[in-house]
Amino acid sequence: MLSRLFGSQRVPSFLYRVSLIMKPQVVFVLGGPGAGKGTQCSKIVEGYNYTHLSAGDLLREERAREGSECGQLIANYIKEGKIVPVEITINLLKQAMEETMQKDEKKFRFLIDGFPRNEDNLQGWNTVMDGKADVKFVLFFDCGEEVCIDRCLERGKSSGRTDDNRESLEKRIQTYLQSTRPIIELYEKHGKVRTVDASRCVEEVFADVKAILDKEG
């Protein structure tokens, strides 16, 4: 049918254009624990046509899912403040994007929060998602260590998260400094990082985020 409508030579290019339309547009959201990534992503979703995917939330949901083969493995990594194996995280992200786009083809813009956290994550993403998603830029929430710790300890009073305690937080911050900051610096070399001072109040931070998103389109 397509060949009759478009001619045999034009079918591949037609299908290629359709695949481009459906390709996920991704913004990686990075920053230390407590930098406010989740809060700002929620505000972005309210005002812009983005779907928020938190790598950490997806891992926690999988950990809690009854019958999950990966659940205990994920639990052990999170408790120790270590990074979960890349294959697990990318498959959860890929599945979440596919399910979102199947439900609504207009939902092709994604904020991926807390990923990639290290070189292994980035290499895994490039391997699995090469040609399947476009990374527009990295939205980097820059925040001092003590501010991050104070925020997480306050959050821990009501979050129920086992990793919102000082011992786990210090491990997580060291992991972030050693593993994630080099990824941010790598993207900076390619001009793909948009930095926001996240030490300020929520509304001041979001004003800068809005300016970035309005400019990027």
Characterise this structure.
This protein is of the alpha/beta class and 217 residues long. Helix content is 60%, strand content 14%. It has 10 helices and 5 strands. It has helices spanning 2-6, 11-22, 37-47, 55-64, 71-79, 86-103, 119-129, 145-159, 166-189, 202-216, and strands spanning 25-31, 51-54, 109-113, 134-142, 193-197. It has a 5-stranded parallel sheet, with helices on both faces. α6 (86-103) crosses α7 and α8 crosses α9. The longest helix is centred in the last third of the chain and has 24 residues, at 166-189. It is globular and about 40 Å long. Residues 1-20 have low confidence and may be disordered.
Alpha carbon gyration radius: 19 Å
Helix content: 55-70%
Q: Report mean pLDDT, rounded to a whole number.
A: 86
Backbone shape = globular
Low-confidence stretches: 1-20
Count the strands?
A: 5
Strand order of the largest sheet: 2-3-1-4-5
State the separation between the terminal residues, measured CA to CA.
Answer: 36 Å
- Written as H for each helix and E for each strand, in order along the chain, the element string is HHEHEHHHEHEHHEH
Structural class: alpha/beta
**β content, as a range?**
5-15%
Number of helices: 10
Strand count, sense and barrel status of the largest sheet are: 5 strands, parallel
